[in-house]
Amino acid sequence: MKIRTAAAVLAARITGYICKKMGRQGVTWAGKIALKINPDILRDLSSQVREKIFVTCGTNGKTTTNNMLCAALEAEGKKVICNHTGSNMLNGVVAAFVLGAKWNGTLDADYACIEVDEASTRYIFPAIQPDYMVLTNLFRDQLDRYGEIDITMNILEEMIRKVPDMKLIVNGDDALSAYLAMDSGNAYVTYGISQPVMKSAANEIREGRFCKRCGERLSYRFYHYSQLGDYSCPKCGFARPALQYDATDVKVQDQLSFTVEDKHIVANYKGFYNVYNILAAYAGVRTAGFSGSRFNDMLKRFNPENGRMESFRISGTSVILNLAKNPAGFNQNISAVMQDASPKDIIIAINDNAQDGIDISWLWDVDFDLLADPSVKSITVSGIRCQDMRLRMKYVDIPSMLEKDVEKAIRSRVADGVGNLYVLVNYTALFSTRNILKRLEGEKE
């Protein structure tokens, strides 16, 4: 088996190298080739991790949280295997291990931080037997792929129960995630924000409004956004659990800051949702037994990549790229954009490829009316479903320009915009748009 493992690693690394030379991401192909040669490659390599394996699941925030947790562990002097690119299905997870292994099939890693697609847990959990699972949140996402949220919850519940020694690190402000943790029988710790910070839109979509334990409608003392907040069931007593890692004195301005366990955490990011991502990573590194004393230093160096509030500078224009793939995530993206009171241009690119979900009806649950602000100087709609996006903007009486080609849209706004550009894209538009921005950033003015 060691020979097959070495052969699988070699073939995968060659595949990854060729794909990179061709300008393609190549991660999933590397994993696919490795599995063809050795179907047990994931079990073989993950068993070589010397200390602990983390998995990060949830609808929104997986990539940022997972990468931040990896960086926090590395700041503690640990060697970590991580699927940084966000390729979180079976082939992508396998690729993280094979591309991180040596040519002879051996792995030199203390920890693994692996982002896992919820539906793919069925294939990944049995092979890697995680020690810890970070659960960020559970929102409605890609109805044609995942179905209703209860289906995702059922899958996660089944897989959590199959790894009874796995400790859960769960967002206590999310009633759905908290219920899974409480009902699983696994040990768990919680993180969250115990006091209200920002006013939540009254018309915002609320998942899980009914108690998963008895079916009664939940009562909320306050919402942070979507269904995240301080909830309780008036019938059976189910309620937000006590928070072991509670963010207090939360500030959401040009930078984010909060206090947890008497540590003042500061990060140069936008978006209230990133408080949860940072807090989840902090809870993860603390649960693993580290003091967290290096966490702030890690945040100063941490550079969000792969289109998660990633910054570019093109011909004097500041460009921010961010992923927005479901109503809860898109609303938080809009909130983050509108924190910037300066004049701005916005490009919204929507595709409907298989990985995006071909059902884009979720666009009608996004609060695009919040973009009707004098600081928004232009909105350009792009991507495969640009006409649908343009119609959605028309229904909130916001004019938009149409340019199906994302590169042309970016070039136009760089040449004739206000010098401050936000590009919001859904999943399959992310990698290609990021490549365009990196290439344009490298061009001489």
Determine the strand fraction and express it as a percent band.
15-25%
Q: How are the strands ordered across the major sheet? A: 2-3-1-4-5-6-9
- Counted beta strands: 18
Count of individual helical segments: 15
Give the helix/strand class: alpha/beta
Please describe the biggest sheet, giving its number of strands, its sense, and whether it closes into a barrel: 7 strands, parallel
Morphology: globular
Whole-number average pLDDT? Answer: 92
Distance between the termini: 54 Å
Note the quaternary state here: single chain
Tell me the radius of gyration. 22 Å
Q: Low-confidence spans: pLDDT under 50, at least 5 residues?
A: none
Helix content: 25-40%
Structure notes:
With 445 residues, this protein is an alpha/beta fold. It has 15 helices and 18 strands. The strands form 4 sheets. It has a 7-stranded parallel beta sheet with strand order 2-3-1-4-5-6-9, with helices on both faces. The radius of gyration is 22 Å and the shape is globular. The chain starts with a helix and ends with a helix. The mean pLDDT is 92.
Spell out the blueprint of helices and strands.
Elements: H1 2-21, H2 27-37, H3 41-46, E1 52-57, H4 62-75, E2 80-82, H5 90-100, E3 111-115, H6 121-128, E4 132-135, H7 143-146, H8 149-161, E5 167-171, H9 175-184, E6 188-192, E7 219-225, E8 228-232, E9 245-246, E10 248-252, E11 256-260, E12 263-267, H10 273-287, H11 295-301, E13 308-314, E14 317-323, H12 327-338, E15 344-349, E16 376-382, H13 386-394, E17 401-402, H14 406-416, E18 420-425, H15 427-442
Parallel strand pairs: 1-3, 1-4, 2-3, 4-5, 5-6, 6-9, 14-18, 15-16, 15-18, 16-17
Antiparallel strand pairs: 7-8, 10-11, 11-12, 13-14
Helix pairs in contact: 1-2, 2-5, 4-10, 4-11, 8-9
